Amino acid sequence: DIQMTQSPSSVSASVGDRVTITCRASQGFSRWLVWYQQKAGQAPKFLISAASSLQSGVPARFSGSGSGTEFTLTISSLQPEDFATYYCQQANSYPLTFGGGTKVEIK
Amino acid sequence: EVQLVESGGGLVQPGGSLRLSCAASGFTLTSYWMSWVRQAPGKGLEWVASMSQDGNEKYFVDSVRGRFTISRDNAKNSLYLQMNSLRVEDTAVYYCVRDPGPDGTGWYYFDCWGQGTLVTVSS
């Protein structure tokens, strides 16, 4: 099984800050890495596929990169609506696995 | 509008059974792989089970294999999760999710999520 480890588990940031979240895989794979955003009390929302392809409607301040075992999600200028928990998920093989999540909190 | 609506959650005793339903609208269920993902209270996301568009392929996380089954009713455009021998650790919100892969190809991620249904296993 591929284990996914996210860091940090939480980050406090201010509006306008740049935030980077890292997701590391226990085994390397190409670019089959996906990112989701989950706001409190809501279902997750799909943000990015194939490590760097933004879903339609996702603001351009979100970007993803990486391949192999290390992937990153970057929010270039944090907005009030971005405070949420972010999860990575490997879409390479079953069993599908998620990272533990990164909570982006208001500083 | 693409929509998934789960139902069937509730309180059940350890060892009991529950059947979750997911009604799909805005798309035809038979064209997509479908899955269930769960989230224990205050915890992260965990993939539970997936089913191919034709029903011939099914995958389960180890912790539920042999206890849970995934199925679909094409006429009702609905997905199901039959959960037997429930354990306290199965307590979670269960989400019905769609794999966006076209023409029955599994892409192994989820572009559409239901609102979730809470399953509580407790005596």
Whole-number mean pLDDT of chain A: 97
Helical amount among residues of chain A, as a percent range? under 10%
Oligomeric grouping of the chains: heterodimer
* H/E element order of chain B: EEEEEEEEEEE
Which structural class do the helices and strands of chain A define? mainly beta
Q: Helix share of residues of chain B?
A: under 10%
Number of helices of chain A: 0
Taken from the alpha-carbon principal axes, the silhouette of chain A is globular
Number of strands of chain B: 11
Strand coverage percent of chain A: over 45%
Using the CA coordinates, give the radius of gyration of chain B: 14 Å
Give the CA-CA distance, first to last residue of chain A: 36 Å
Largest interface, counted with CB-CB under 8 A?
A-B, 23 and 20 residues
Overview of this protein structure:
Chain A has about 110 residues and is an all-beta fold. Chain A is globular, with a radius of gyration of 13 Å. Chain A has strands at about 5, 10-15, 20-30, 35-40, 45-50, 55, 60-75, 85-90, 95-100, 100-105. In chain A, a hairpin with a 3-residue loop joins strand 5 and strand 6 (about 55). Chain A has no helices and ten strands. In chain A, the strands form two sheets. In chain A, strands 2, 4, 5, 6, 8, 9 and 10 form a seven-stranded mixed β-sheet that branches. A three-stranded antiparallel β-sheet of chain A has the order 1-3-7, with no helix packed on it. The termini of chain A are far apart. Chain B is an all-beta fold. Chain B has strands spanning about 5, 10, 20-25, 35-40, 45-50, 60, 70-75, 80-85, 90-100, 110-115, 115-120. In chain B, the strands form two sheets. In chain B, strands 2, 4, 5, 6, 9, 10 and 11 form a seven-stranded mixed β-sheet that branches. In chain B, strands 1-3-8-7 form a four-stranded antiparallel β-sheet, with no helix packed on it. In chain B, strand 4 (about 35-40) and strand 5 (about 45-50) form a beta hairpin. The N and C termini of chain B lie far apart (about 40 Å). The chains are: A mainly beta (about 110), B mainly beta (about 120). The interface of A and B includes residues 34, 43, 45, 46 and 100 of A.
